[in-house]
Amino acid sequence: MTLHIVVCVKQVPDWDIPPSSFKVDEAAKKVVPPAGVAPVPSQFDAIAVEAAMRIKDATGDARVTIMSLGAATARDVIKHGLAMGGDEGVLLVDDAFNSLDSNGTATVLSTAIKKLGDVDLVLTGRQAVDWDLGVTGTLIAEMVGAPVITFAKAVTVADGKVTVQRVLPDAFETVEAPLPAVVTVSNELGEPRYPKLQQIMAAAKKQVNTWGAGDLGLDAGALAPKLTLERLFVPVTDTKVEIMEGDTPEDQATALAKKLHDAKLI
Ligand SMILES: Cc1cc2nc3c(=O)[nH]c(=O)nc-3n(C[C@H](O)[C@H](O)[C@H](O)COP(=O)(O)OP(=O)(O)OC[C@H]3O[C@@H](n4cnc5c(N)ncnc54)[C@H](O)[C@@H]3O)c2cc1C
Fold first, then answer.
1. Which of 47, 92, 122, 133 to mutate to test the pocket of ligand 1 (most atoms within 8 A of CB)?
2. Which domains does the chain have, with CATH numbers?
3. How many CB atoms lie within 10 A of CB 143?
4. How far apart are the CA of 255 and the centre of ligand 1, in A?
5. Can you point out the beta strands (E) in the chain?
6. Cα(63) to centroid of ligand 1, in Å?
7. pTM of the predicted model, to two decimals?
8. Cβ of 102 below 6 Å from ligand 1
9. Buried b (16+ CB within 10 A) or exposed e, 26-49
10. pLDDT in 10s for each residue of the chain, 266 residues
11. Helices then strands, each counted (H, E), the chain
12. Residue 123 and residue 157 in contact, taking contact as beta carbons nearer than 8 Å
């Protein structure tokens, strides 16, 4: 039977540009990316698509759905996943989805996964590279009632089970779970494949279904945030620089040692 894999891909501001080019609008509690920089798939999510493609290559019988929740522009990250080898896309877009916290995000994604109906494996990134909360994958697992395995560096599927090599701080471990299951994918899995021009053109013809809150039967109550963003700000660092006087490096070092001694630091 064909294995059905869903990969959740978030569209984020380009994570390759320097953090200093972002502004924080404290009043609106929003991060403002620089103008003219196209958003991209979150880094770990492209790696999750790569994990799905490796399973598809190995089993020879898998269907991969690329799912994204966001603005209409999130269609681009779905198309990227389709160019990598995905079969179809689901774009979740609605004004009601504009200010979701993690619980709301996972509610929309898990409801869409349940609506697809025949999903064997859900892959997410270990964390989204913008907000870095790292909770959406585990929340989805709870909401669809499936086991979850986090921080995967290798994912294989056989005999109705998923086997995952997990990344630990100083080791790896191998665990398995029955399907359906949710796996969050880490960067140790390796580089995502780069789509060729022919694949990019073929992706343009692949189907992307667009669902809103009404299609998923979700109302404002189900999406009400459980967290409140109290304040968003850039921390102010207060750094003082003092140049050690002295004619020679030895004099400067002596002055520095005296200063540290007087401050009772040495
Ligand atoms: C209190 C609070 C207020 C917030 N306010 C805003 C706000 O005003 N504006 C704003 O833009 N964000 C806001 N956020 C962030 C937004 O809610 C987060 O994007 C969301 O909670 C998911 O967390 P995360 O992005 O860190 O994803 P993680 O939990 O780190 O994501 C893990 C994985 O889940 C999947 N995933 C996550 N999000 C999506 C998605 N949208 N589509 C597909 N897959 C996904 C990806 O595979 C990803 O790698 C707020 C968050 C909090 C906690």
1. 133
2. 3-223 (3.40.50.620), 236-266 (no CATH)
3. 17
4. 51
5. 3-8, 11-12, 23-25, 30-32, 40-41, 62-69, 88-92, 121-125, 148-158, 161-167, 172-178, 181-185, 208-211
6. 26
7. 0.89
8. yes
9. eeeeeeebeeeeebbbbbbbbbbb
10. 899 999 999 999 998 888 888 899 999 998 898 988 899 999 999 999 999 999 999 999 999 999 999 999 999 999 999 999 999 999 999 999 998 999 999 999 999 999 999 999 999 999 999 999 999 999 999 999 999 999 999 999 999 999 999 999 999 999 999 999 999 999 999 999 999 999 999 999 999 999 999 999 999 899 999 999 999 998 888 888 889 999 999 999 999 999 999 999 98
11. 8, 13
12. no
**Nearest partner of 135 among 104, 168, 163, judged by Cα:** 104
Unique residue bearing structure tokens 């400067």: 252
Q: Is 135 in the pocket of ligand 1 (CB under 6 A)?
A: yes
- DSSP symbols for 127-158: S-TTT----HHHHHHHHHT--EEEEEEEEEEE
